[in-house]
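Follow-up to my earlier ticket, as requested here are the two runs.
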Amino acid sequence: MRPPAKSMHDAMSRIPTSASDSFVSSAATSEPATVQFRQPCVTDASAILRLVRESGILDCNSLYLYLLLCRNFAATCAVAERSSQIVGFVTAFRLPDRSDTLFVWQLGVARSAQRQGIAGGLLDFLLPPLIRSGIRYVEATISESNIASRRTFDALANRFGTVLKPTDGFPAECFPSAEGAHEAEPGIRIGPFTLTQPDAARASAMRSARPRQTNKPSEVREGDTFACEEQAQSCAGGVPD
């Protein structure tokens, strides 16, 4: 999505600026038969960081930050796993001043897992329990050039029968010149989400084995059909195949 912010890698004070950060990794592995969606645990942090580094697009932060996300924000994050390897992840958090809003920060899928609904599957797994706990809106920021990421969020709004509207983000001048040229990051806001939305119930049923402390994964086999399959080729990929 944008060049890694090397000067901020170890700065925990860094404000996440690209909620919709997304990529397709260059790593390629054989495709096992199942994808498992679950909440992350601290041992997943290094794998998430590896995917971020391999992307060349996502802002790369310190391992410590991903450890905190996996431990303290696990309820609003998720990973996709195949054959004991993390092939996708989404990191998000509730906005402190608006507890009904989920800010999606980074969303990434390995190249080996594209065209299989992984990005949409991660969001479909994550959202229904959060909707039940009061989440009504999803926000993110997306640079104008990241068409694939915009399509991912457009598809999310369509699946849940709600709307996507522009909102405030970060203008280009917010980014220090030392980090190099950086596009503006306009914001988006999706919602409202409700428990009566048909696709929310469908998504909840498909991802019903949501893990808690045990991190027991829910499984999706390759033959399963996702409403997001049309957008799976982007898989939140900032770089089209």
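Run two:
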Amino acid sequence: MLRHYDEVDLFKPVHSDAQTGYRYYSVTQLSELYRIVALRDMGFTIKEMKHILVDNPEVSDLQRLLEQKRQRLQEDMNQTRYKLAHVEARLKHLAKETSPQVNAQHQVNAQHDVSDVIVKRVPAQRIVSLREVTPRMEMAGMFMVNVLRTLSEHGIGPTRTGLAVFYDAHYETTDVDWEVGRALPSDFDEDVHEPICLDDGRPLCVHTLPEVSEMASWVIEGPYVSLFEAYKVLGEWLEAHNATTTGDSREVFLNISDTPANNITEVQFPIVSQT
């Protein structure tokens, strides 16, 4: 470690023996070494550590660097949680498939699941939301949390239904074009309400989702990564009823829990029946 720090000019010895290659350090250098170790443990790169230790930035600049590092670490944690939850959901699904009892009842259950799909009219809904293209699906959780948290901070909290609208023609796991927001109360006046922005400055917008005369929907309980089951059921229902989607799919967050297994989500497809 010390050899590497010497080679990259991050932490130099007070003296190096040209014949033996030994490096000699002073006790007074310990505090600097402790700072390097602390920065390394926080995940800072050599370049970032050199900037902090050599350039001696202002406190405000150091705070900005730490905030950026915290955000990157939070994103890494969310991606790891997403991958872990996805693995657990797949293991649970495989366990069901390999269970003799489940296999014996699979056809009955599948028919029961499809029969739970309902078709209803969804009226026009005024919402406040933010639309973005998320590079990878595992980053979606952070975006959704940021939007809903920001709305809660501005008085539009969990009592207002949260939802997502997907603008891709097909289900995508990369470059996901979607928006996340909450339904607005009828008395919400955007002209007198203060602007709502994420911490990065992006403003949320108020607009109206159009009425859908025929919306096929199915409700599922469980973590967000298990929603593929809802899409599967709706896809089977569409095929069985000779129907096709005719607009943007939606996910309505009926219950968002600290325990993902208790989440309740309604997946909605606008449809048209084939004649």
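The only thing I checked on run two: Residues 95 and 102 are 9 Å apart (CA to CA). Let me know what else you need.
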